[in-house]
UniProtKB/TrEMBL annotation:
KW Disulfide bond (keyword) present: yes
GO molecular function annotations of the record: cytokine activity; frizzled binding; protein kinase activator activity
Gene: WNT11
One Pfam family named in its UniProt record: wnt
Name of the protein in its database record: Protein Wnt
Function: Ligand for members of the frizzled family of seven transmembrane receptors.
Intracellular or extracellular location(s): Secreted, Extracellular space, Extracellular matrix
Main location: secreted
InterPro entries listed in its UniProt record: Wnt, Wnt_C, Wnt_CS
GO cellular component: cytoplasm; extracellular matrix; extracellular space
Protein backbone atom coordinates (compact mmCIF):
# COMPACT_ATOMS: atom_id res chain seq x y z
CA UNK A 1 0.00 0.00 0.00
CA UNK A 2 1.38 3.37 -1.01
CA UNK A 3 2.14 5.95 1.61
CA UNK A 4 0.38 8.66 -0.37
CA UNK A 5 -3.18 7.66 0.33
CA UNK A 6 -5.37 10.16 2.09
CA UNK A 7 -5.79 7.84 5.02
CA UNK A 8 -2.22 6.73 5.55
CA UNK A 9 -1.55 9.47 8.03
CA UNK A 10 -4.27 8.24 10.30
CA UNK A 11 -3.00 6.43 13.28
CA UNK A 12 -4.14 2.96 13.98
CA UNK A 13 -5.60 4.15 17.22
CA UNK A 14 -8.15 6.29 15.51
CA UNK A 15 -9.45 3.28 13.67
CA UNK A 16 -9.55 1.48 16.94
CA UNK A 17 -11.31 4.33 18.58
CA UNK A 18 -13.96 4.51 15.97
CA UNK A 19 -14.43 0.82 16.45
CA UNK A 20 -15.23 1.40 20.02
CA UNK A 21 -18.04 3.81 19.46
CA UNK A 22 -19.27 1.53 16.75
CA UNK A 23 -19.06 -1.90 18.26
CA UNK A 24 -15.51 -2.71 17.34
CA UNK A 25 -16.04 -1.98 13.70
CA UNK A 26 -12.75 -1.09 12.02
CA UNK A 27 -10.72 -2.38 14.95
CA UNK A 28 -8.47 -4.52 12.81
CA UNK A 29 -8.11 -2.00 10.08
CA UNK A 30 -4.58 -1.79 8.74
CA UNK A 31 -2.78 1.42 9.64
CA UNK A 32 -1.96 2.23 6.04
CA UNK A 33 -5.37 2.05 4.55
CA UNK A 34 -6.30 3.27 1.09
CA UNK A 35 -9.92 4.18 0.70
CA UNK A 36 -10.25 5.24 -2.89
CA UNK A 37 -11.92 2.16 -4.33
CA UNK A 38 -15.09 0.48 -3.23
CA UNK A 39 -13.41 -2.87 -2.67
CA UNK A 40 -11.30 -1.24 0.05
CA UNK A 41 -14.41 -1.15 2.19
CA UNK A 42 -13.92 -4.87 2.74
CA UNK A 43 -10.62 -4.10 4.47
CA UNK A 44 -12.48 -2.26 7.17
CA UNK A 45 -12.98 -5.29 9.31
CA UNK A 46 -15.76 -5.35 11.81
CA UNK A 47 -18.22 -3.24 9.87
CA UNK A 48 -21.71 -4.63 9.71
CA UNK A 49 -23.10 -5.07 6.20
CA UNK A 50 -25.17 -1.88 6.26
CA UNK A 51 -21.96 0.04 7.04
CA UNK A 52 -20.02 -1.68 4.27
CA UNK A 53 -22.78 -0.72 1.85
CA UNK A 54 -22.66 2.87 3.00
CA UNK A 55 -18.89 2.82 2.57
CA UNK A 56 -19.13 1.36 -0.95
CA UNK A 57 -21.70 3.86 -2.06
CA UNK A 58 -19.93 6.83 -0.52
CA UNK A 59 -16.15 6.66 -0.06
CA UNK A 60 -15.84 10.37 0.69
CA UNK A 61 -18.35 9.98 3.48
CA UNK A 62 -16.27 7.14 4.88
CA UNK A 63 -13.16 9.32 4.96
CA UNK A 64 -15.12 11.90 6.88
CA UNK A 65 -16.22 9.27 9.36
CA UNK A 66 -12.67 8.07 9.92
CA UNK A 67 -11.66 11.69 10.50
CA UNK A 68 -14.41 11.94 13.11
CA UNK A 69 -12.72 9.17 15.08
CA UNK A 70 -9.67 11.32 15.70
CA UNK A 71 -11.87 14.16 16.81
CA UNK A 72 -13.67 11.93 19.31
CA UNK A 73 -10.39 11.02 20.89
CA UNK A 74 -9.31 14.64 21.30
CA UNK A 75 -12.65 15.86 22.59
CA UNK A 76 -13.01 12.99 25.04
CA UNK A 77 -9.53 13.51 26.47
CA UNK A 78 -10.12 17.18 26.88
CA UNK A 79 -13.50 16.78 28.57
CA UNK A 80 -12.16 14.21 31.02
CA UNK A 81 -8.66 15.55 31.70
CA UNK A 82 -9.61 16.32 35.30
CA UNK A 83 -11.34 13.02 36.00
CA UNK A 84 -10.07 9.70 37.32
CA UNK A 85 -11.39 7.99 34.20
CA UNK A 86 -9.71 10.01 31.44
CA UNK A 87 -10.60 8.24 28.18
CA UNK A 88 -7.22 6.62 27.89
CA UNK A 89 -8.71 3.15 27.44
CA UNK A 90 -10.09 4.29 24.11
CA UNK A 91 -6.58 3.99 22.73
CA UNK A 92 -6.12 0.50 24.05
CA UNK A 93 -9.19 -0.83 22.33
CA UNK A 94 -10.03 -3.51 21.44
CA UNK A 95 -7.90 -5.22 24.07
CA UNK A 96 -8.88 -3.20 27.05
CA UNK A 97 -12.48 -2.48 26.68
CA UNK A 98 -14.15 -3.53 29.87
CA UNK A 99 -14.87 -0.03 31.12
CA UNK A 100 -16.44 0.70 27.77
CA UNK A 101 -17.82 -2.59 26.58
CA UNK A 102 -20.00 -3.05 29.63
CA UNK A 103 -23.01 -0.80 29.84
CA UNK A 104 -21.31 1.77 32.02
CA UNK A 105 -21.68 5.51 32.35
CA UNK A 106 -18.34 5.92 30.55
CA UNK A 107 -19.50 3.89 27.59
CA UNK A 108 -22.72 5.94 27.55
CA UNK A 109 -20.61 9.07 27.14
CA UNK A 110 -18.39 7.59 24.44
CA UNK A 111 -21.31 6.32 22.37
CA UNK A 112 -23.06 9.68 22.62
CA UNK A 113 -19.89 11.56 21.70
CA UNK A 114 -19.11 9.23 18.79
CA UNK A 115 -22.58 9.66 17.34
CA UNK A 116 -22.38 13.44 17.75
CA UNK A 117 -18.89 13.54 16.23
CA UNK A 118 -19.81 11.56 13.13
CA UNK A 119 -22.83 13.75 12.40
CA UNK A 120 -20.78 16.86 13.20
CA UNK A 121 -18.02 15.85 10.80
CA UNK A 122 -20.50 15.10 8.01
CA UNK A 123 -22.39 18.38 8.45
CA UNK A 124 -19.10 20.30 8.40
CA UNK A 125 -17.85 18.39 5.36
CA UNK A 126 -21.00 19.50 3.50
CA UNK A 127 -20.05 23.10 4.26
CA UNK A 128 -16.50 22.75 3.04
CA UNK A 129 -17.58 20.99 -0.14
CA UNK A 130 -15.82 17.72 0.68
CA UNK A 131 -18.87 15.56 0.09
CA UNK A 132 -20.48 15.20 -3.33
CA UNK A 133 -23.85 14.24 -1.83
CA UNK A 134 -24.61 17.44 0.00
CA UNK A 135 -24.29 21.18 0.05
CA UNK A 136 -24.92 24.09 2.43
CA UNK A 137 -27.80 23.84 4.86
CA UNK A 138 -31.09 25.71 4.35
CA UNK A 139 -31.55 29.44 4.80
CA UNK A 140 -33.46 29.86 8.09
CA UNK A 141 -37.12 30.82 7.86
CA UNK A 142 -36.97 33.45 10.61
CA UNK A 143 -35.67 37.00 10.07
CA UNK A 144 -31.93 37.36 10.74
CA UNK A 145 -32.23 40.28 13.18
CA UNK A 146 -31.71 44.02 12.64
CA UNK A 147 -28.70 44.92 10.50
CA UNK A 148 -28.07 41.26 9.66
CA UNK A 149 -28.67 39.24 6.56
CA UNK A 150 -28.54 35.52 5.96
CA UNK A 151 -25.60 34.39 3.87
CA UNK A 152 -22.55 32.23 4.04
CA UNK A 153 -22.85 28.46 4.08
CA UNK A 154 -24.81 26.85 6.89
CA UNK A 155 -23.73 23.47 8.25
CA UNK A 156 -26.09 20.88 6.76
CA UNK A 157 -27.16 19.47 10.10
CA UNK A 158 -30.09 17.44 8.79
CA UNK A 159 -27.86 15.62 6.32
CA UNK A 160 -25.25 15.06 9.03
CA UNK A 161 -27.83 13.67 11.42
CA UNK A 162 -29.38 11.43 8.79
CA UNK A 163 -26.17 9.91 7.42
CA UNK A 164 -24.47 9.87 10.82
CA UNK A 165 -27.34 7.93 12.37
CA UNK A 166 -27.35 5.50 9.45
CA UNK A 167 -23.73 4.68 10.10
CA UNK A 168 -23.57 4.93 13.91
CA UNK A 169 -26.70 2.96 14.63
CA UNK A 170 -26.26 0.17 12.10
CA UNK A 171 -24.46 -2.24 14.48
CA UNK A 172 -27.18 -1.84 17.09
CA UNK A 173 -29.81 -2.80 14.55
CA UNK A 174 -28.23 -6.12 13.64
CA UNK A 175 -30.50 -8.84 15.03
CA UNK A 176 -28.21 -11.62 16.14
CA UNK A 177 -25.47 -10.09 18.25
CA UNK A 178 -25.30 -8.67 21.75
CA UNK A 179 -27.85 -8.25 24.50
CA UNK A 180 -31.02 -6.36 23.74
CA UNK A 181 -30.53 -4.13 26.80
CA UNK A 182 -27.07 -3.06 25.66
CA UNK A 183 -28.29 -2.27 22.17
CA UNK A 184 -31.16 -0.19 23.50
CA UNK A 185 -28.76 1.64 25.76
CA UNK A 186 -26.35 2.41 22.93
CA UNK A 187 -29.12 3.52 20.59
CA UNK A 188 -30.57 5.79 23.24
CA UNK A 189 -27.23 7.36 24.10
CA UNK A 190 -26.31 7.85 20.45
CA UNK A 191 -29.58 9.73 20.04
CA UNK A 192 -28.73 11.86 23.09
CA UNK A 193 -25.43 12.68 21.41
CA UNK A 194 -27.20 13.81 18.27
CA UNK A 195 -29.62 15.84 20.35
CA UNK A 196 -26.70 17.61 22.02
CA UNK A 197 -25.36 18.33 18.54
CA UNK A 198 -28.72 19.77 17.47
CA UNK A 199 -28.70 21.98 20.54
CA UNK A 200 -25.28 23.31 19.55
CA UNK A 201 -26.52 24.89 16.33
CA UNK A 202 -26.12 28.63 16.71
CA UNK A 203 -26.17 31.79 14.65
CA UNK A 204 -22.71 32.89 13.59
CA UNK A 205 -22.03 36.23 11.97
CA UNK A 206 -19.29 38.01 10.09
CA UNK A 207 -18.87 41.78 9.85
CA UNK A 208 -18.77 43.75 6.61
CA UNK A 209 -18.66 47.43 5.83
CA UNK A 210 -16.09 50.12 5.23
CA UNK A 211 -12.96 49.72 7.37
CA UNK A 212 -14.48 47.18 9.69
CA UNK A 213 -17.46 49.34 10.60
CA UNK A 214 -19.67 46.29 10.73
CA UNK A 215 -22.62 48.13 9.20
CA UNK A 216 -23.76 44.85 7.66
CA UNK A 217 -23.43 41.45 9.21
CA UNK A 218 -23.76 38.21 7.28
CA UNK A 219 -25.10 35.37 9.42
CA UNK A 220 -25.60 31.66 9.05
CA UNK A 221 -26.37 28.70 11.28
CA UNK A 222 -23.27 26.82 12.30
CA UNK A 223 -22.44 24.08 14.77
CA UNK A 224 -20.34 24.71 17.83
CA UNK A 225 -16.99 22.97 18.07
CA UNK A 226 -17.06 19.32 19.02
CA UNK A 227 -15.31 20.10 22.32
CA UNK A 228 -18.29 22.24 23.32
CA UNK A 229 -20.67 19.42 22.51
CA UNK A 230 -18.41 17.13 24.54
CA UNK A 231 -18.60 19.52 27.51
CA UNK A 232 -22.40 19.46 27.29
CA UNK A 233 -22.35 15.65 27.18
CA UNK A 234 -20.01 15.54 30.17
CA UNK A 235 -22.62 17.41 32.20
CA UNK A 236 -25.13 14.79 31.14
CA UNK A 237 -22.62 12.06 32.04
CA UNK A 238 -22.36 13.44 35.57
CA UNK A 239 -26.12 13.23 36.01
CA UNK A 240 -26.69 10.04 34.01
CA UNK A 241 -29.52 7.74 35.04
CA UNK A 242 -29.14 4.08 35.91
CA UNK A 243 -31.73 2.01 34.10
CA UNK A 244 -33.00 -1.56 33.98
CA UNK A 245 -34.51 -3.50 31.10
CA UNK A 246 -38.06 -4.18 32.19
CA UNK A 247 -41.42 -5.03 30.64
CA UNK A 248 -43.58 -1.95 30.34
CA UNK A 249 -46.79 -2.54 28.44
CA UNK A 250 -46.26 -5.20 25.81
CA UNK A 251 -42.50 -4.77 25.32
CA UNK A 252 -39.37 -4.43 27.39
CA UNK A 253 -37.97 -0.94 27.78
CA UNK A 254 -35.19 0.78 29.61
CA UNK A 255 -36.68 2.40 32.69
CA UNK A 256 -34.99 4.24 35.57
CA UNK A 257 -33.85 1.78 38.20
CA UNK A 258 -34.99 3.76 41.19
CA UNK A 259 -38.65 3.39 41.90
CA UNK A 260 -39.99 6.60 40.41
CA UNK A 261 -42.15 5.33 37.59
CA UNK A 262 -41.30 7.49 34.61
CA UNK A 263 -39.95 6.82 31.17
CA UNK A 264 -36.35 7.67 30.35
CA UNK A 265 -36.00 11.25 29.14
CA UNK A 266 -34.70 11.90 25.62
CA UNK A 267 -32.07 14.24 27.01
CA UNK A 268 -30.49 11.99 29.62
CA UNK A 269 -27.65 9.54 29.24
CA UNK A 270 -28.47 6.12 30.63
CA UNK A 271 -26.35 3.22 31.84
CA UNK A 272 -26.97 -0.33 33.00
CA UNK A 273 -23.95 -1.10 35.15
CA UNK A 274 -22.22 0.86 37.86
CA UNK A 275 -18.58 1.75 37.28
CA UNK A 276 -15.70 1.08 39.62
CA UNK A 277 -14.27 4.16 41.38
CA UNK A 278 -11.21 3.95 39.07
CA UNK A 279 -8.88 4.44 42.05
CA UNK A 280 -6.87 1.25 41.75
CA UNK A 281 -5.68 -0.63 38.73
CA UNK A 282 -7.97 -3.55 38.04
CA UNK A 283 -8.05 -4.88 34.51
CA UNK A 284 -11.02 -7.08 35.26
CA UNK A 285 -13.24 -4.04 35.56
CA UNK A 286 -11.38 -1.83 33.09
CA UNK A 287 -9.81 0.47 35.67
CA UNK A 288 -6.34 1.91 35.07
CA UNK A 289 -6.10 3.41 38.53
CA UNK A 290 -4.79 6.89 39.23
CA UNK A 291 -1.24 6.12 40.30
CA UNK A 292 1.15 8.63 38.72
CA UNK A 293 -1.70 10.82 37.52
CA UNK A 294 -1.05 14.52 37.97
CA UNK A 295 -3.27 16.23 40.52
CA UNK A 296 -3.93 19.83 41.49
CA UNK A 297 -3.14 20.74 45.06
CA UNK A 298 -5.11 23.98 45.05
CA UNK A 299 -8.20 22.76 43.25
CA UNK A 300 -11.17 21.48 45.17
CA UNK A 301 -12.76 19.79 42.16
CA UNK A 302 -12.34 16.31 40.73
CA UNK A 303 -8.69 17.01 39.82
CA UNK A 304 -7.78 17.88 43.41
CA UNK A 305 -5.09 15.71 44.93
CA UNK A 306 -7.56 14.41 47.53
CA UNK A 307 -10.10 13.16 45.03
CA UNK A 308 -7.77 12.20 42.19
CA UNK A 309 -5.46 10.20 44.47
CA UNK A 310 -8.34 8.65 46.43
CA UNK A 311 -6.72 9.68 49.72
CA UNK A 312 -3.49 7.75 49.04
CA UNK A 313 -1.40 10.89 49.07
CA UNK A 314 0.84 12.37 46.40
CA UNK A 315 4.45 13.08 45.53
CA UNK A 316 5.74 16.50 44.52
CA UNK A 317 8.15 17.00 41.67
CA UNK A 318 9.53 20.08 40.03
CA UNK A 319 9.00 20.95 36.45
CA UNK A 320 10.65 23.62 34.33
CA UNK A 321 8.28 25.78 32.32
CA UNK A 322 9.52 27.97 29.49
CA UNK A 323 7.26 30.85 28.52
CA UNK A 324 7.27 34.11 26.61
CA UNK A 325 7.86 37.13 28.83
CA UNK A 326 8.87 40.83 28.84
CA UNK A 327 6.97 41.25 25.61
CA UNK A 328 7.36 44.63 23.95
CA UNK A 329 5.27 46.17 21.23
CA UNK A 330 7.21 47.94 18.51
CA UNK A 331 5.65 50.64 16.30
CA UNK A 332 4.62 49.43 13.76
CA UNK A 333 3.67 46.45 13.98
CA UNK A 334 5.43 43.68 15.74
CA UNK A 335 6.04 42.25 19.18
CA UNK A 336 9.26 40.91 20.62
CA UNK A 337 9.43 38.68 23.65
CA UNK A 338 12.07 37.03 25.75
CA UNK A 339 11.98 33.49 26.99
CA UNK A 340 11.74 33.02 30.74
CA UNK A 341 12.12 29.88 32.71
CA UNK A 342 10.07 29.19 35.74
CA UNK A 343 10.28 26.27 38.14
CA UNK A 344 6.87 24.98 39.16
CA UNK A 345 5.95 22.36 41.67
CA UNK A 346 3.63 19.65 40.48
CA UNK A 347 2.12 16.63 42.14
CA UNK A 348 1.44 13.07 41.12
CA UNK A 349 -0.67 10.50 42.94
CA UNK A 350 1.03 7.79 44.99
C1 LIG B 1 -5.93 4.47 -5.28
O1 LIG B 1 -4.77 4.77 -4.54
C2 LIG B 1 -3.65 4.01 -4.93
C3 LIG B 1 -2.52 4.30 -3.98
O2 LIG B 1 -2.42 5.67 -3.71
C4 LIG B 1 -3.30 4.36 -6.38
O3 LIG B 1 -2.19 3.59 -6.82
C5 LIG B 1 -4.50 4.06 -7.27
O4 LIG B 1 -4.26 4.48 -8.60
C6 LIG B 1 -5.74 4.77 -6.76
N1 LIG B 1 -6.91 4.34 -7.51
C7 LIG B 1 -7.85 5.18 -7.91
C8 LIG B 1 -9.00 4.57 -8.65
O5 LIG B 1 -7.80 6.39 -7.70
C1 LIG C 1 -28.81 20.40 2.76
O1 LIG C 1 -29.50 21.61 2.84
C2 LIG C 1 -30.17 22.00 1.65
C3 LIG C 1 -30.78 23.35 1.85
O2 LIG C 1 -29.87 24.30 1.45
C4 LIG C 1 -31.22 21.00 1.31
O3 LIG C 1 -31.90 21.37 0.13
C5 LIG C 1 -30.59 19.67 1.12
O4 LIG C 1 -31.55 18.71 0.88
C6 LIG C 1 -29.76 19.32 2.33
N1 LIG C 1 -29.11 18.06 2.08
C7 LIG C 1 -28.17 17.87 1.17
C8 LIG C 1 -27.79 16.43 0.98
O5 LIG C 1 -27.61 18.76 0.55
C1 LIG D 1 -4.88 9.01 31.76
O1 LIG D 1 -4.86 8.00 32.73
C2 LIG D 1 -3.94 6.96 32.48
C3 LIG D 1 -4.14 5.89 33.52
O2 LIG D 1 -4.11 6.40 34.81
C4 LIG D 1 -2.54 7.53 32.47
O3 LIG D 1 -1.59 6.52 32.18
C5 LIG D 1 -2.46 8.63 31.41
O4 LIG D 1 -1.19 9.23 31.44
C6 LIG D 1 -3.54 9.66 31.63
N1 LIG D 1 -3.52 10.58 30.52
C7 LIG D 1 -3.45 11.89 30.70
C8 LIG D 1 -3.43 12.72 29.46
O5 LIG D 1 -3.43 12.40 31.81
C1 LIG E 1 -5.27 24.16 39.88
O1 LIG E 1 -6.54 24.57 40.30
C2 LIG E 1 -6.65 25.96 40.48
C3 LIG E 1 -8.02 26.23 41.08
O2 LIG E 1 -9.02 25.57 40.39
C4 LIG E 1 -6.43 26.64 39.15
O3 LIG E 1 -6.52 28.05 39.30
C5 LIG E 1 -5.04 26.28 38.62
O4 LIG E 1 -4.85 26.82 37.33
C6 LIG E 1 -4.89 24.78 38.55
N1 LIG E 1 -3.51 24.45 38.23
C7 LIG E 1 -3.16 23.62 37.26
C8 LIG E 1 -1.71 23.34 37.08
O5 LIG E 1 -4.01 23.08 36.55
C1 LIG F 1 -13.99 25.41 46.17
O1 LIG F 1 -13.67 26.17 47.28
C2 LIG F 1 -14.07 27.53 47.17
C3 LIG F 1 -13.53 28.27 48.40
O2 LIG F 1 -13.57 27.47 49.54
C4 LIG F 1 -15.59 27.58 47.08
O3 LIG F 1 -16.01 28.91 46.96
C5 LIG F 1 -16.04 26.78 45.87
O4 LIG F 1 -17.44 26.75 45.80
C6 LIG F 1 -15.50 25.37 45.93
N1 LIG F 1 -15.80 24.69 44.70
C7 LIG F 1 -16.20 23.44 44.68
C8 LIG F 1 -16.42 22.84 43.35
O5 LIG F 1 -16.39 22.77 45.69
Amino acid sequence: VKATSPLTALSLSSHRLLSLGLCRALSKTPAALVLNQTQHCKQLEGLVSAQVQLCRSNLELMRTIVHAAREVMKACRRAFADMRWNCSSIELAPNYLLDLERGTRESAFVYALSAAAISHAIARACTSGDLPGCSCGPVPGEPPGPGNRWGGCADNLSYGLLMGAKFSDAPMKVKKTGSQANKLMRLHNSEVGRQALRASLEVKCKCHGVSGSCSIRTCWKGLQELRDVAADLKTRYLSATKVVHRPMGTRKHLVPKDLDIRPVKDSELVYLQSSPDFCMKNEKVGSHGTQDRQCNKTSNGSDSCDLMCCGRGYNPYTDRVVERCHCKYHWCCYVTCRKCERIVERYVCK
